[in-house]
Specification:
Helix content is 39%, strand content 22%. The protein has a six-stranded parallel beta sheet with strand order 1-10-7-4-2-3, sandwiched between helices. Strands 8-5-6-9 form a four-stranded mixed beta sheet, with helices on both faces. The protein has one domain: NagB/RpiA/CoA transferase-like (Rossmann fold), CATH 3.40.50.10420. It is an alpha/beta fold and 205 residues long. The two termini are 19 Å apart. The chain is built from eight helices and ten strands. It is globular. This is LUD domain-containing protein. It comes from Anaerosolibacter carboniphilus. It holds the Pfam family LUD_dom. InterPro entries: FTHF_cligase-like_sf (IPR024185), LUD_dom (IPR003741), NagB/RpiA_transferase-like (IPR037171), UCP020269 (IPR009501).
Length: 205
């Protein structure tokens, strides 16, 4: 695994992204909070990794404003949080898959998460556990279908075939959550800095 991580770090950097690795969630959390500092507007895209880390709480406690639609209740508050997250100083989210070639692969329901990753915020930080590392884009797409989408659909109580079969069937359900798939091959030109942070633990979907 160490060789894979070194290969991944090098390819991410070749693709114009800053790359950081930490053995533990605690180390990564401290680094992220220190890097962001205080007095920032911080947007967050839907991420069980960030929720499980309670990263948003530490960032808020450091004196930053958090915009995350998971933390509000009304549709109006949700829309406001998404809009402000998309133009924040820093945008935090996770990845569904990261290939050894240094590509970041995601599937989204509404598109707000993936759109903010490629356009708007001044700095984007993408967090992923070692379970997200895939050999190539083919394996990454397979991971999206088997490991990412079904548990997310279950979490959201969606009535989709994958909830029953534990595997994406490319359904036509009105409650489908796999509507937008993106691959970041290189750092988008409009993003000031994009950093991928790998943690040596299994995290999220």
């Amino acid at each position: 695994m160490r060789e894979k991580i070194e290969q991944l770090m090098g390819n991410l950097q070749q693709n114009g992204m800053k790359a950081s690795y930490f053995d533990t969630t605690a180390e990564a959390k401290n680094y992220i909070v220190d890097t962001i500092g205080s007095g920032k507007d911080v947007g967050i895209g839907g991420s069980m990794t960030i929720m499980d880390m309670k990263l948003h709480e530490s960032i808020r406690d450091a004196g930053n404003q958090i915009y995350w639609h998971w933390l509000v209740n009304t549709p109006e508050e949700r829309n406001t949080a998404i809009d402000r997250a998309n133009c924040a100083d820093v945008y935090l989210t996770s990845a569904n898959a990261i290939t050894l070639q240094g590509e970041v692969v995601n599937v989204d329901g509404n598109g707000n998460r993936v759109s903010a990753m490629i356009y708007g915020p001044k700095k984007v930080m993408i967090i992923g556990g070692i379970n997200k590392i895939c050999n190539d884009s083919f394996e990454a797409m397979d991971r999206l279908r088997k490991d990412a989408s079904p548990p997310n659909a279950k979490r959201l109580n969606r009535k989709t075939p994958c909830v029953m079969t534990d595997e994406c069937r490319d359904c036509n359900s009105p409650e489908r959550i796999c509507n937008v798939t993106t691959i970041i091959h290189k750092k988008p030109g409009c993003i000031g800095e994009m950093e991928v942070i790998i943690i040596g633990e299994e995290l999220g979907y």
